[in-house]
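User: Look at the shape:
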Amino acid sequence: MEFFEQEKPKEACGVFGIYDLDGGPVASSVYYGLSSLQHRGQESCGIAVCDTAGSKGNIDCHRGMGLVSEVFKEENLQLLTGNLGIGHVRYSTTGASTLQNAQPLVMNYAKGTLALAHNGNLINTKQLRLSLEQQGVLFHTDTDSEVIACCIAKERVHTKTVEEAVLRTARRIRGAYALVIASPRKLVALRDPLGLKPLCLGKRGNAYVVASESCALQSAGAKFLRDIRPGEILSITNKGVFSDTSLCSSNTAHCIFEYIYFARLDSTLDQINVYDARIRAGTALAKSYPADADLVCGVPESGIPAAKGYAETSGIPFGFAFYKNNYVGRTFIKPTQKERENSVRLKLNVLGSVVKGKRLVLVDDSIVRGTTIANLIRMLKEAGAVSVHVRISSPPFLYPCYFGTDIPSNHQLIASAHSAEEICAIIGADSLAYMKTEDLQSMVGSLPLCKACFDNHYPIKI
């Protein structure tokens, strides 16, 4: 992982599924969908496909460590033949970063075969796993995703349909999840009742597509139909799409960090456009924390929309202070401070002619450890910036996330041990202000939110 990216919280995964009712091949569509979800996980990826007209046990799968473009080549995709497929990109929150834990998981059990891809994190994994182990279930990974798959397989032995087995499993698991499941004749998708993790439905011709974000639908040539409701189970068969809403309720809590950082700018989640939400974050920052400055700039890429919103509201011109090198390969964290600083400089260069002699407002979406923002401020001042006023479009991280956002432990969170004034001095800024927790709602209107990593108010009992 790049050091620059290590300063950001990590999303767990991205999921994608497609069923072409006309029987056309789907492996390349899954590839395109996963490529557009690459920002949600870069450790491993995989694709599983089956032919719904073939034998019931047929599911072919290819998985590997690394990016989608590294794991899948033309020869891999040609071997994945079938008209129903699911895919996954992973960043580990439970389970080690190993090929063994890569997804989709493929299981052979008494009633046949299924493949599963999961985004999220369960809070009752230990209890469920222990119960299954006591019943003789053997686990091959240390992920909560395998626990879900084993629960479904166990329930399926006693049910008439895979949908009923999925429903029974959903009643047992607690936490955050967006799941796509390939049964040899069906594509099943479900979302946790709180709506913590996003999932949407699209269509391309006579093919139905589900994905973590709407941008993945577009990459596969599909038109967005709607968001899958929190608690909804969708079953896509050769007869069409069927919905089970028996787990749906009005008590939802959508993860605010999807809108602050995780989701891609061109996505729309639960009817909220991500780009517009980040513009509104900058607007709220400018109203609450004005600055006497000549130029507003954002930390690429995630800080730029909020910086634009700040500039539009404050009347201070918006500009680019950094050039981002998009052709830098992934580099490993270096052991010395000097090498760490060089890792940042490899990724971003200051546009000296833009910042020289200017008082700057520097906008970013978060501060985790504070190391990267400190290096960027130092680079700006070395290039001649007169002052750097930092504005952060999220509140300080103070509490752990149990739902799939990988926020470092408290001793690594700079805000858990230091006040904003102390952090300002540590990073070398001339002023520092975080977005107010009460202003987060302005990003998404009336959409109910989970803000527990900021305010310690969890939507379910942990």
About this structure: The chain is about 30% helix and 25% strand.
